[in-house]
Amino acid sequence: SSTPVFSGRKTLTATDGIARFTDLSVEAFPAQAPSCACTAPWTAGCTTCCPVCASCGYTGTTVSHTIRFRLGSLPFLDITLVLARRVQKISVGNPQPLVGVADEKLAKPFTVEARDCSDAEVKNSTATVVASLYDNPEGAELRGTLEVRFTNGVAIFTNLIISRPGSGYTLKFTYRGSAPESMSVTPVITGGILISKAVTELFLSKSPEGLETEAGRPFTIQPHVLLRDADAALATNSYALVTASISNDPGKSIFHNPGTTLLQGTKVVRSQQGTARFTDLSINKASIGQGTTNSGYTLIFSYLAASTSTGKFNIRPASWTDLLIPSFDPYSFQPLTSIAGRPLARQPVVYLVDAFKNLVQPSQVPTGTVLRVSISSGVLLADGCSMVCTGARVQTCTSCATPVANAESGVVRYTNLRLDTAAKGYTLAFNTSALRVVSDPFQVVHSPPALLVLTAISQTTPADQPLATQPTVTLVDLFGNPVLDETVHAGVSAAPGTNARGTVNVRLLTPTGAFANLPPLPPAAGQAPNSVCRKPERRLDGNLLANMTGGFAYYTDLALRQVLSGYLLEFSVQLTSGTLRANSSSVGVTPGRAAGICNMSLTGRCSAGAPCLNDAEIACIDTFGNVQRACTICDSCDAALVDPAISARCALGKVCTKIIAAPEGGLLSGEGDCFDPLDASPLPCALLTSGAVGARIANVVMSLASPRYQLKFFTLLQDPNNLSSAVEYSYETRPFNVTPPGPMIESVLFSKELHILHIKFDKLTNRNEVPGVAQGENSCSNNLDAAFQATLGTDPRCSWTDRRTLEIVLGAGATVDTATRILLSPLSSITFTSEFDDTTMTSLPATTIVGVIVDGVATGDFLPAFSAALPVPQQVITGTRNLSACQLVNADASLSNGHGGKPFTEIGWTLDFMTSFAEAGILAPEHDAVFLNRYISFSSVLASEVSNTTLKLRPNTPVLPQSFMTISGLPGFAPKYYDCPQSTETSPHRVQCRHSTASLDCINVKLEGPDAVLFTTGSVTYGTLQVGVHVGQWQPLANGEAILVLQVDAEAHLPSDADTVLWFEMLNPRFETPRRTPAITVSCFRCSCVGQLSCTLGENVFDMDFPKQP
What would the mean pLDDT of 925-940 be, rounded to a whole number? Predict the structure, then answer.
């Protein structure tokens, strides 16, 4: 039929979404030709055709069909199938095996070919062929692979075995395809096969037995093995595979190269006509001179159950070609983990070997062969050979050079190699002139702990910060190797009160054992004077204990709090072997950021109404009491931004003083320009730079005596978080005494007879009676200074006539007179005692030192005076009352009297302008020089705005060239300030002040208006640079204010018959300022005071003109 036959299972259920068809086949060619009109010879494959048929009735080699797959009602999936002609017949290829041996694979394979009806090979067939015994005269069994698949049209049977001997065996090969039975292919039968008897024994016809062969070379006599059957006849039909292997293996027990010895060469040989001939067998391991008791190799040859062995033969080492360090336990000579400073735990041994690691014999080593050793890193030492170790703490050792070893025996054994540096990955290299071997990597571990080693730390550190570089403590052995496992050496616990073992403790040391002293003690070694004001709670701060882990202890927060140079940090750790200590390098401590104030000295020895004799010095300190001379808490301060009302209380950079406890009515006064905003009372103050390291508050005066005074010292620092505000740092004293004023000499009078001096004090005294000090019969030396006592003559006598009067009886030759200064002894203690504020108080001793303030009065020279009854001289001077121009001034003192007149030592005169006047205009106007018009107006008074300030002036007499006009009461110069972005105008240059040439702190301001030309010129450097313009100068004053100074040009003057009008720009303050009244004065110290204007116009208050603004 020409209809294709489609076979197999055509309907499947999908599994996991996949339908797998496994047995589909198509017979696409017709089974028989449509006609039998064939003339060609008959072809065996055409079984259903005419006896004579050339092509089985069809032409072509392939046909195409379509297979359609469908799921339910989904569209068809079409696959095109191209089919070749099917297998019509099989045939056995030639030549066919004719003989074999029982139980042995047939020497030659059977090949079965698949062919179509035109006798062409069917290359694409996937069918199989099955082999079976067809003629089986001895009832044998056919074994091996009995079913083989066609590959490229051929199925090859390579391992068919017939189990019994006999003759006339035939095989049948059956085609097995997937087509229906009607399309089966006729099996094919082979010719007869003769099977000989099976091989049952092997026999050696040649053997290396008794020979000595060099390692790695083929045996000089290669083995020949005969295959025999049970009748001892040679199995000439056998082509069996004979396998050779080592039986007795002395190489297996060679300790430097253990392991089963491998037989080299072709170990499996196919026999030919009953004989297996081996051609290239060899052994690489020597059996001679390798230190093994098992000598001599034997070989065994086998086929199935049959085998045969050789007798013993030996293998000698090949030529020396290499170096070897044995590496196999328990006979390894590779270096092991060793301890630093000791010989290696396993000293290396080096073998001279051939290419197969066989130890060569001494006869194979050239005379004079030596071996040198080197280390991959570090220094390799020869322990005990001229060892020299140096170092105060960590030891560095040297030795003689590692010896050059004689290698003529073939083995070199080392005994004293040593390494002192712990490390991993060491390797030893051993060299001869041409060969080299390197050991396995090994490590050297630390020896027992011996030292503590520290990392470098910061040389200087601020007191308010941890050390920038924190120390790391390493536990090392004597050679500086870190002791990584300190737990081996550290105890579990320590005695009570001591550090736990394995924990590092740190403490602070100084070279002298002394730390910084507080004032008033002198500085300690390493301490700068006045560097410390208060003792910190802890000089060494942070976690002082650090656990040692892996040989390292890490500190993270150590900080030194007190300023000093030369600190040392001592680190210690307690181990089972004792305590180890180490000191750091020197560390200096600098002060931290300002955090408060402290008293370097306090106001003391105070007397009511007089400056205290001991000044207070108040310094800025950091958090830990160290003096911080740079007293600031912000990095970019700008004092101009601080609210002036805050600065007026106590200007930045100053320390101010106020009373916080005092008797009723007690007042405080002193130097400085600060004031208390609560009651507007002045406060003593001083610049922070006025003392040695801080503000020296001098000349503090308290008005009343009392034991209850307390002072508060404070300073204001610009707030870094709000630059217009300030932070206050303060210090409050404990209650202290202000003693009553001491006695002061009221008078020193000569007696009428001039032989006695009476020194009278203004208060009741203690008569210089000091407990425990005897006055003596002559008490002059206890009361009077030696220099004054020397003017009293020989043996003067002093005594107190009452509690206020000291009487001095002059001695012979006294020289004291009314010009002699009275001097009390500096050791005297003439005091006044009374009740003050419910407390008995004693004054400071009386003094004759000039300038000392006592009860508000400065002491002067105390001079003796004569009694009131003595005559007093009277001066009478007369002169002319009217002078002509250029007339000499005459004066006459002839009317003076005094009962003992003397010539005048000095004559001085002056002209009183207030009572003198000029009749012809020589001296001055009859009236005082004033400004008839003096107006100042401001275009704006709003904060931070630029005010155009106008002056209108008319004097009643001309203001001369080079005169200075000084305007006070103005806010002063301020740079422009911009809120967004927050910035200030570039500060102008400071220039030399014209009014006070010693100062370089003035700022030029441009003058404008019709009469600006009357004033001197200069340059203006704020805003746009302008040169040669008419300028005035802002000049700062010590109290924080400023004045505006205008100088009349040398070629100009201010007229008295017209108004002088000019104006200038002024930036109003950002904050409310204290109320001031602008005023103007004129001075002329560079011009001649002649003409129509006196040298000085007194202060004239301006008439103010404010615009009306909201």
Answer: 78
* Bond prior to 330 in cis (omega within 30° of 0): yes
**Confidence tier at 988 by pLDDT (50, 70, 90):** confident
Please name every residue paired with 607 in a beta bridge, in sequence order, or none if there are none: 610, 739
pLDDT on residue 129: 94
Closest CA to 938 of 1043, 1064, 1033, 1076: 1064
**Contacts with 339 (C-beta within 8 Å, 6 or more apart), sequence order:** 345, 444, 445, 446, 447
pTM of the model: 0.53
- Is the pLDDT reported for residue 527 higher than 70? yes
3-state class (DSSP) for residue 113: strand
Question: Is the Cβ–Cβ distance between 220 and 211 less than 8 Å?
Answer: yes
- Cα radius of gyration rounded to whole Å, the chain: 64
Please report, for residues 33, 181, 322, the alpha-carbon distance to residue 57 in angstroms, rounded to integers and kept in the order given.
4, 21, 79
The fraction of the chain above a pLDDT of 70, given in percent, is: 86
CA distance 96 to 171: 11
Nearest 5 degrees, angle CA 604-CA 605-CA 611? 85
pLDDT tens-digit readout, 267-313: 999 999 899 999 999 999 999 999 888 789 999 999 999 999 999 99
Give the pairing type, strands 188-189 and 161-162. Answer: unpaired
**Backbone CA torsion sign across 1049, 1052, 1057, 1061:** negative
Residue pair 272/238 in contact (Cβ under 8 Å)? The answer is no
Residue 622 · residue 706 · CB < 8 Å: no
Among the ranges given (285-289, 613-617, 672-676, 1052-1056), the one the predictor scored with the smallest mean pLDDT: 672-676
Length of the chain: 1110
Are 691 and 617 in contact by the 8 Å Cβ rule? The answer is yes
Query: Which tokens hold the place of 728?
Result: 């206050």
> Which pairing describes strands 1060-1067 and 946-955: parallel, antiparallel, or unpaired?
antiparallel
Q: Report whether 678 contacts 672 (CB < 8 A).
A: no
Q: If you ran DSSP here, which 8-state letter would residue 289 be given?
A: S
What backbone phi and psi angles, to 5 degrees, belong to 645?
-65, -35
In angstroms, the Cα distances linking 776 to 411, 769, 830 are 111, 11, 16
Question: Which residue, among 311, 229, 217, 221, has the nearest Cα to 265 in the 3D structure?
Answer: 217
Cα 42 to chain center, whole Å? 103
* Three-point CA angle 141, 146, 151, nearest 5°: 160
- What whole-number distance in Å separates Cα of residue 199 and Cα of residue 274? 9
CA distances (Å), origin 631, targets 251, 307, 617, 641, 719:
90, 107, 14, 18, 12
